[in-house]
Design goal:
With 358 residues, this protein is an alpha/beta fold. Helices cover 30% and strands 26% of the residues. The strands form 4 sheets. Strands 4, 6, 7, 10, 11, 18 and 19 form a 7-stranded mixed sheet that branches. A 6-stranded parallel sheet has the order 14-13-12-15-16-17, with helices on both faces. Strand 12, helix 6 and strand 13 form a beta-alpha-beta unit. The chain is globular, with a radius of gyration of 20 Å. The relative contact order is 0.16.
Length: 358
């Protein structure tokens, strides 16, 4: 079986191999044939060591495909079913799940420490307990979510992570109010989805902030009312909000420096929403006086901040109704052999989302 493998953390290239085997099939598990997978910045962050992940590993967690086989005890899934991959399935029994905060369930993270592939040289992990840069993968049944027949695999793959994360940040976590002002820092796939979520919620002004000109141009097509470079952000704040600051600012980069910029451009009493996944040693700081005096809400958003199954359904409904555009988010398509070109395009900001077709 073919798969793209990172041998050591810190390497910037993947090796496409044909001697990989998906392992772990048994009770409660399903074997999937991956048909399409998106390249998410979290994959790059895991490769570089920003996000913790044992190696060697197969990146990819934003996938969709078909069920090949189901293990004992699996209900609601059958061979041939079309599914998207949920990298953070809810166990339904932990305190977070019982409180309705299924996005905080740790069961999926526990899976990340168990290899679900092997090669002649030894075990291989799947990123976030999945690993979708491969032809086949074995995952827990909760990771395979059925999708309607009218949803293409490449659209379902995007919904599996980036779209759900961005839409959910605006709709679930921040709960953007109609008529409000919004700024989004970082306009890759998740940032573009955040912009679309803010538009769905009825924001009056949506300012996109990104250093890459092509991404700023894309942001305007997806609903931003204007798009500026980081150097122009202060001027936009003055023009749009008379210097007060935005009602909502979304940080979709995952760095303390941009989080601090986001905080400073949020109005007093406004909301800063942290969407980007950053490093454990990158500390975001506020002083105790401004924290008290400005009364700005700081809201982290994990995987869209809500029940992911409901979020998937909502994304499909909005897409069907033409309220969000998912097809145009796919700016590049490659086969597995082109994965390293796709990584370079993401690092330079050339792509919004690359669909890897398998």
């Amino acid at each position: 079986m073919r798969a793209a493998v990172l041998h050591e953390i810190g390497q910037d290239k993947l090796e496409v191999l044909d001697d990989v085997e998906a392992v772990g099939f048994g009770p409660g598990k399903v074997r999937l044939r991956i048909r399409a997978t998106g390249l998410c910045h979290s994959d790059v962050s895991a490769m570089s060591g920003v996000l913790p992940q044992p190696a060697p590993f197969i990146p990819g967690h934003e996938g969709a495909g078909e069920v090949m086989d189901v293990g004992d005890g699996v209900t609601g899934l059958s061979a041939g079913d079309r599914v998207l991959v949920c990298w953070l399935p809810a166990c339904g029994a932990c305190p977070s799940c019982k409180r309705g905060q299924t996005q905080l369930c740790l069961a999926g993270f526990m899976n990340a420490g168990t290899p679900n592939f092997k090669r002649p040289g030894g075990d291989v992990f799947g990123f976030a307990g999945t690993g979708t840069f491969t032809e086949e993968v074995v995952v827990g049944a909760g990771c395979a979510v059925p999708i309607p027949d009218d949803v293409p695999f490449e659209i379902a793959a995007l919904i599996g992570c980036g779209v759900t994360t961005g839409l959910g940040a605006a709709i679930n976590t921040a709960q953007v109010e109609a008529g409000s002002s919004v700024a989004v820092i970082g306009c890759g796939g998740v940032g573009i989805s955040t912009i679309q979520g803010a538009r769905v919620q009825g924001a009056a002004q949506i300012v996109a902030v990104d250093p890459v000109a092509s991404r700023r141009e894309a942001a305007l097509r997806f609903g931003a009312t204007e798009a500026v470079s980081p150097d122009e952000f202060a001027d936009a704040k003055q023009r749009v909000t008379a210097g007060e600051g935005f009602d909502y600012v979304f940080e979709v980069v995952g760095k303390s420096a941009t989080a601090r910029t986001a905080y400073e451009n949020t109005r007093r009493g406004g909301t800063l929403c942290i969407v980007g996944a950053g490093a454990m040693d990158d500390n975001f700081q506020v002083n105790m006086f401004e924290l008290f005096f400005d009364e700005k809400r700081i809201l982290p958003s994990m995987y869209g901040g809500g029940d992911v199954l409901r979020s998937y359904e909502r994304a499909i409904a909005l897409w069907r109704a033409g309220r969000i555009d998912l097809e145009s988010m796919i700016t590049h398509r490659v086969r597995l052999d082109g994965i390293n070109d796709a990584l370079d395009q993401m690092r330079t900001g050339e792509s919004l989302r690359t669909c890897v077709e398998l």
